[in-house]
Structure formats: C-alpha cells, structure tokens
tRNA-dihydrouridine synthase 2
Amino acid sequence: MNWAKDLARSVKNILDMSRRSRSVSPSSRTTKRQKVDHLTKESFKNGIFLAPMVRSGCLPTRLFALKHGATLVWGPEMVDKAMLHAKREVDPVTGVISYNGVSRAIFTTHPIEKPYLVFQLGSADPELAVQAAKVVQQDISGIDLNCGCPKPFSTHAGMGAALLTNPDLLCSILTALRAAMPPEITVTAKIRLLPSQEDTLKLVERIVNTGISALTVHCRTRNMRDKNPAVIERLREIVDFVDKMGKGIAVTENGDCEGWEDSKRVRKVTGASSVMIARGAESNPSCFSETPLVDVEKTLMPAYLRLCKYLDNHWSLTKFCVTQFKGKRVEATKAESTELRQKIAKAKSFDDMAKVAAPWTGEDEMKAIIQAIEENNPKDRRLLPSQFLGDNAPPDEDEEGIPEYSSQEPIPNYFTPEHTQNPEPPSLRAPHLPNNFERLVLPPSEPPTPTQTLKPSLTASP
Ligand SMILES: Cc1cc2nc3c(=O)[nH]c(=O)nc-3n(C[C@H](O)[C@H](O)[C@H](O)COP(=O)(O)O)c2cc1C
C-alpha cells in the first residue's frame, strides 16, 4: 500500500502548496511556484482548452483532459447567485473541494487543477458577479463570463447570450470583475458571433477594452444549433482585428474542433491562437492528445468509473458522462462495446459496475493524473504558433473538408436560420438558478445590436 501513502502525501503536498501560495512570506520555492502558477495573457496563447460544459465538464472529465494534453480547463457555468451561499468543504482524504448548496455539491474542484482552472460565471449583475467570484477565488486561476449560452434559463435572466445585445451590462460585469479580482486571477469572456460581422467587431472592441486577458469566440450565432456547422471562416477577421488593437489578447476559436489533429485545420482557417473543445471532449476527454485513447470501452470507461467513485462523483452525473464516451474501436469488438453500454444503461449505482471497473482502486487513477500533471505541466503543452501552420496560404489540396478561405474575399453574412432559437429545452443541463429567477426576467424587447458609440478607428474598418 505504499502507493496509497504516496498519493496521500501528494495530495497533502498540493494542499500545503496552495495554502503556502497565499501566505505573506513565501519560501523561495513557493515564490518560483507562484510565478509559474498564475495565468497571464500568455497562458491563453497556442493552447488547446477544455470548454465549459454543464454536467459534462465535471471534475473527473477536467482531470482526464489535463492528463491527456489540455492546456487549460474551464469549469461548467455556475450562476452567480448559486455560489453566494455555497459552503466550502474539503475532503481530507482525496483533497476534493466541494462548494455545497442546500442539498448537493454545486461545484467541485481539486487543488491539482487550480493552476489550469478557469471558473465560468453566469451573471447579469456586476455586484453579484464579483461576490460570486470572491467565493471561489482561492481555488481557481481565472474567471470567465458566459456571454454565449442561448438557453432560456440563461437568457431570460439577462445572462449568457442575452449579454451580447446588452453590451453595457456585459462590459460592466467584466470591468467590475477585473477591478475586484487580484492581478493573478485572469478575467476572460466567451461570446458567440452576432449575426452581422460589423456588430461582432464593435462588440469585440468594447470587450477587449475592459481589460480582459483573453477572448473565446464560439463561432455560431445565438440562434444557431450545434448541428449547424460553426462559421469559423468569420473568425479570421476578428482575430486580425483584436491583434491590431495591440493589447496582446489571444482569441480562442470554439466550435466544431474535434481534437488535437483537427486543431491544425481550425487554426489554419481562422488564424486563432488557441482552440477550445466541448463535444469532442465530451465524447473523449483524451482528444487533446496527439494520440487520443482508442477502445474507450476498455480504456477510458473503467478508469473514469474508478476515478469517479474515488472522488465521490455523483453516480447519475458519472453515468451521464460515461454514456457520452465514443471512440475508435481497434481491439474491442462491437459486441463487447454494446454489452458494456447496456450494463451502464441499467446500472443504478457504482456497485452495479463493479465487475467492469473492479478492483475499485480509483486512487491509482488519481495518482496517475497527479503524476502526469506534475511531470508534464499542462501550461507547457502548446500548439505550434499559427504562423507555422501557414495560415495565410490556401489549405493543402490533399486535405479534404477544409474550406477555402482568403482574407481578401468578402465574408458572407451568416444569418441565423429562422425558427431555430433556443433549440434545446432547459432540461438536464440547466445550472442552479437564482431563487429570484422570475424577478430577474428581462423585457423581451432587447436591442438587436450593441448600441455604444465606437471609436472612429473601428467605424472606418472592414
Ligand atoms: C453538454 C454541454 C454543456 C455546455 N455547457 C456550457 C456552459 O456551461 N458554458 C458555456 O459557455 N458553454 C457551454 N456549452 C457550449 C460549449 O462550451 C461550446 O461553446 C459548444 O458546444 C461549441 O463547441 P463544440 O463545437 O466543440 O461542441 C455546453 C455544451 C455542451 C455540449
């Protein structure tokens, strides 16, 4: 059982480290650590990130993503009000930190992911956003504002994609967060495209001027469904625009990037510094690796189940995540895969999966994750700078499926298909709502585009 002691020691070291990093007179080792641990604008460049995902982006998924090559990980959106009264508890054995609501943990994290963890907030109020950020500040490295969720539970409260058409509010939240957070906590934003490119650029200019450290653009408009291809061709102009603003802000592409290999295509088309992956990682959290796991039924699923049990991840959440896993079959047969999936579908608790995952040594999985992260700092795992991808050159002829793009060509206006607003019901993925949700509902007539006056430089631009 030496490894168990090693693991306990490792967790204790991490907890000590995070405690020490807040002390007033750090040792020279801690000073060095602090420098490395804090996120900066540079940390968001040439990276491959795990996207925020309610449910699917839970702690075990984030840890697997970090083990398998993600540079940084975003937590699932948490609504500001839900965090305000959350009670923080630390599991002394595993080191898991839980922020508990009335009846359940609403957010869990672990000190090993802190240097790479961006916490995503849903908010429509600068003061509440700041209060919520202060609650979790000690366990995270960055705060991201969700300005893209199109679902009614978000938009009716003025949060998510509703902020895209309320730029004054959006920017006031970012400004308040930047002013309230210590410099070592980055503030970032994740937006969607507006229907017109010009309005998108106007909005981006305002957002970048709030002092954020990085910007993610989900290349769909508010009304587009996930099944509509992301219009990544629109991003290059945005990337160039932000670059010309000269603030050293990286733009991250989000939308339809499937993994490490596919990131080359996406960055070549868009010129984006980094990519952020959601559904690709939901299917296979090792997609960040140059050699993602295959035969997920034999490799990923048992290990994931073991880790979830060890971390005390809720069974229904675990079941949901495991059910999403898909991957190339190399040695596993179709019959084996089907049998396992049927077992999972019927399982009502971890015990029902004992035969698949036993022996239940999730500590081994945790130990391997800690070791992988300590030996290979995720922040050092970078993609080739996009100039080496020849992003101004037309895509290679032999690379199928890469849309032709030339920055000289006019960019088409991608209007949202009609009758496609808020395609998915606010069902399982709904985050914890504020108690006074009803009172926060905004009037339906939001202005269609940002209204703020712009600097002349922008009005004259493309
Ligand atoms: C299960 C699920 C949950 C999501 N939850 C969030 C969220 O909490 N915050 C957010 O900004 N976007 C959320 N998204 C959107 C993704 O972050 C991402 O923008 C979108 O899926 C497009 O990326 P993709 O094409 O790589 O999937 C979610 C997406 C999925 C599939």
About this structure: The longest strand covers residues 186-193. Residues 295 and 331 are 7 Å apart (CA to CA). The pocket of flavin mononucleotide is lined by residues 51-56, 76-77, 120, 146, 148-149, 190, 218, 226, 254-257, 277-280, 282, 429 (CB under 6 Å). The mean pLDDT is 82.
